[in-house]
Amino acid sequence: MEKYVSVLKRTRLFAGVTEAEIAAMLSCLDAKLRAYKKGEYVLRQGEHLDRITVLVGGSLHIQKDDYWGNRAIIQRIAVGEMFGEAYIAPESGALPHDVVAIEDSIVMLFDLRRMMTVCSSACRFHATVVHNLFFAISEKNRKLVQKLGHISKRSTREKLISYLSEEAKKQSSASFTIPFNRQQLADFLSVDRSAMSNELCKMRDEGLLEFDKNAFKLLQGEE
C-alpha cells in the first residue's frame, strides 16, 4: 500500500501533507486497496457508500445507462481524484449511477468516520486532510458546473465548441488531447455520435479545427 503514497501526495485531498505523514495515516484512516480489471464495475447503481474513495491507478468513468442501453458519461475520474463523495452522508441515499474501470485500475478507500474525526493525538496533518476534503469537494462541484455549461448548449456544434475551448484553456494550448474516444465524447456531451462526427468534419472543412483521433488543434483565433 505504501507504493501509492507518492500518488496520494499529489492529490488535492493530501495537499500540504508529507509522504511520511501520509504513510502514518494509512492505518489511522483504515485505508484499503481494491483492484479492478478493465470493464469491471467499481460501484453499481443502488449501492450505498460509507467510504471516501480515491483512484490511485488507471482510469474510471461515472456513467448511467437508461432502460434501452443509451449511455451518458457523467464524469471521467483520473488518478488522484475522489469519486462518490456526494453520496457518503447517511441521508444521501443510494448511488444513482455506475462507476466503471476504463482500464485496469486501483482504488484506495478511507473510512469516512475516521477521516472526519481527528485522532486522539490531534496530529496536524490529520486536521489538514479534513480541511482539504472541503476544498476537494468544492473543486468537484466546479467541474460538474463546467460540464453543465457544455451540455446546456442547444446544438451539437455549440457543445463541441464549449468543451474543446475549455480543454484548450485548461491545457494552455490550441493543440491538445482529450481523454475520450468518439463514442465516449458523444456520451459525455449527450449527443448522437454520428451527428457529432459529421459536425466535427464540417468544422474541420470550415477551417475551425484539425483533429486526429483524440488529438485536436483549434485554428480560429490563432496568431
How is this fold's topology laid out?
Blueprint: H1 5-9, H2 19-28, E1 32-36, E2 41-43, E3 51-57, E4 60-65, E5 71-77, E6 82-83, E7 98-101, E8 105-111, H3 112-116, H4 124-151, H5 156-170, E9 175-177, H6 182-189, H7 193-205, E10 209-212, E11 215-218
Helix pairs in contact: 4-5
Supply database-style keywords.
single chain, Jelly Rolls, Arc Repressor Mutant, subunit A, 38% helix, 23% strand, globular
Describe the structure.
The chain is of the alpha+beta class and 223 residues long. It has two domains: 2-140, Jelly Rolls, CATH 2.60.120.10; 153-218, Arc Repressor Mutant, subunit A (Orthogonal Bundle). Helices cover 38% and strands 23% of the residues. It has helices at 5-9, 19-28, 112-116, 124-151, 156-170, 182-189, 193-205; strands spanning 32-36, 41-43, 51-57, 60-65, 71-77, 82-83, 98-101, 105-111, 175-177, 209-212, 215-218. The chain has a four-stranded antiparallel β-sheet. A four-stranded antiparallel β-sheet has the order 2-7-4-5. A three-stranded antiparallel β-sheet has the order 9-11-10. Helix 4 runs antiparallel to helix 5. It is globular and about 65 Å long. The N and C termini lie far apart (49 Å). The relative contact order is 0.14.
CATH topology of the largest domain, by name, is: Jelly Rolls
Number of discrete domains: 2
CATH architectural label of the largest domain? Sandwich
User: Nearest-angstrom radius of gyration?
Assistant: 19 Å
